[in-house]
Amino acid sequence: MDTIESQLAVRNKCDQLQKSIKELYDWEADIKKAESARAEANEEILPPVRSDEKAMKEFSVQESAHAEKQDQGTDKEQIAKAERFKEIGNKQCKLGNYLSAIDLYTQAIETYTACATYYTNRALCYMNIERYDDCLEDCNAAIAKDPNCIKAYYRRMQAYERLGENSKALAECRKILELSKDEKEMNTAKKDMARIEKRLKGQASSPAPVTGNKGNNEQNPTLLLIKQEADKYKELGNKLLAKKDYVTAEKHYTHAISLFDNEAIYYTNRSLCYWNLKDYDKCLADCNKAIQLDDSYFRPYYRRMQVRELRGAYQGALEDCRKFIELNKDEKQKATAEKDMVRLERLLKSEQPAKQSFVWNELKKNAKRIEFVQKPPHMRSRKPLKRIHIADVPPLVQAPKAIPQGGITKRQTIPDAIIDQMFNNNTGERLTVPEEKTNLEHLFPAHSNKLKNMFSPPTTPSDKPKSFPSSEAPIPSISRDLQNIGVKATEIKTASFVGPETKPSDKMEKDKINHENQGLNEAAKKQKDPAKMTDVNLSIPKSTAQFYTTWSGLNEDLRYQYLKLMKNAPLSKLLGASLSNQMLGEILYILKKHFIANQIDVTNIMRGVAENECISILALMLNNEDRNAVEVLLTYMQGQHLKQEELQRIRSKLLV
């Protein structure tokens, strides 16, 4: 046995030794693998011996290839990063955030400077914010990077045109036609070139504008430059007018008029903006000014015709329409104006002009139609309707009234509450009905104290207890009825009153109800004056009804004590489905004012309020004071080492 055990021990040790040696080999293999991976990542090539010329040449070739590969990898990373900046900049540019787009394009250019697209995109942003010098600088840089960049030439042409350098803009159009092979780009360049050539011809053939002296027709180079600058803003306004951006277009036309106020076209174009903005007073004033400057210009007549027709001045509108047909040479526009003239003649002959209500609405430029607002129930006012006193105004001279026979009778006034009941109306007034005293003594015998406590009205210690007749004395009402029948009083005295038979179980239930009613009546009497409540025994309520009954009769200090008792009670069950918006505000007010001042934990109470089944609706009806109280309580709860998850849950329930 010793030999077998020794052989087994040797075998086990051999297995352990083999396992250890294998782990060593595996560790060595892992180390070599890691070193080879690190060497491949670094790609460090050791130089050969300098005496070997062939090896040195190969080493130099490998080094140059390695450097080119590293440069290509770096360029790819930079390009990818710059493209991300460019994409975000494009989104900002589409949204009209040109300053943010400029910053993003600048970051793209700083990351990778060899791309001309970044410069052209930034040039577009500069042009949209009217920084034309920066736009030209970026266009020049883009052309230096890529001489065939069509967008750079087009942006530079637009900048030259807006700066008033039409000859340079024309040269850029010709350069685009020379380089571009796209039909769409060539057609756009041809249209722009035709427009610029027309402007150049107009500038060459147009006379100098008239200054303060009407007889002076000599050309004034200063006024020509001012006119060119005003034309730039007019062109900007025309583009915005085509995009239906009437507010910005009106600003550009106003700027053009401030530079050069003797051009009728500026006023006519601005009147179109005012027409679309429904500012008809300014539209009419601009039309009159344009006609005053150039009475042969036909467009302001048609616009003034529209305003006059809208305001019901059909005779003046008809005269403007005839003048428009007389001056205009376009047959299509003439045909449209002739139809308008027929309509105006028909309106002028008709006794009742059409669309008078529409005309009245359009007279006021800032008038808005106010629709009926249907509010949901929780947003309606809780205040009662106010009754408006309506009285007949007596005439100055009154005829003498005939006195009825039998003397003057005074009419009694009908209370308003009765009128409200007749017409099913509610104005908050109530009819004061006198209380009728009930006497239930004839329904039960004098010795039945249980029935007396059950049916008689509640009494207070200050009230004197009612005296009930003895069993020997007859009940007055019964004796009176029996005497009418013919029964004598002596027979009534000897007759015994037989009441309904009651079971013992019914008596026990009635006794229980009687005691509960007596307790509620006494509590109600005590709660009538909460300010005088000082010695009140408060306890944790056992039901929702008990909680609400006790709460409604307490003052502020006692409510604080009452809530303090329930800080560890299941408040979510006690509140129930009867929690109202007013009571929720009272609870939040007590917690904010008293609990925080006395450093009392409010976590359980706030959790119970948040777990209420009606809190999703009540949270929508919280006013600003209640929301402020919730914020203060949540801030106070953060210092009580409450978990953020539960704090966030309470916040989401109360602050919708």
TrEMBL record:
InterPro entries (UniProt xref): RPAP3, RPAP3-like_C, TPR-like_helical_dom_sf, TPR_rpt
Domain of life of the native organism: Eukaryota
Keyword set includes Nucleotide-binding: no
Family statement: Belongs to the RPAP3 family.
Residue ranges of every copy of the RNA-polymerase II-associated protein 3-like C-terminal domain listed in the record: 541-627
Presence of keyword Amino-acid biosynthesis: no
Annotated Pfam families: RPAP3_C, TPR_1, TPR_8
The organism of origin for this protein: Anopheles darlingi
Region (Disordered): 37-77, 450-481
Protein name: RNA polymerase II-associated protein 3
Biased composition (Basic and acidic residues): 65-77
Keywords: Repeat, TPR repeat
Signal sequence coordinates: none
Gene Ontology cellular component list: protein folding chaperone complex
